[in-house]
Amino acid sequence: MNKILVLNKASLEEINIVHPYFSKIIVINKLLLPYKEREYKLKDVKAEIVKIPDGLENIKLNIAIKRFGKESIVLSKDLGINIDSNFIISCLIRALDIFTIKHGCDLRLNEVLIADAENILGKICFRYLLNFARRIILLADKRENLIKDMEFALKNYGISVAVIEDPIKAASLCQAMIITDKRYEILIDPKKPTLLLNKTICHNGLCFDDVDITLDEKNFYDSILAQGFLEMKGYERIWKNAEEEGFKISKFKLQNNLIMEI
Question: Which superkingdom (predicted)?
Answer without folding.
Answer: Bacteria
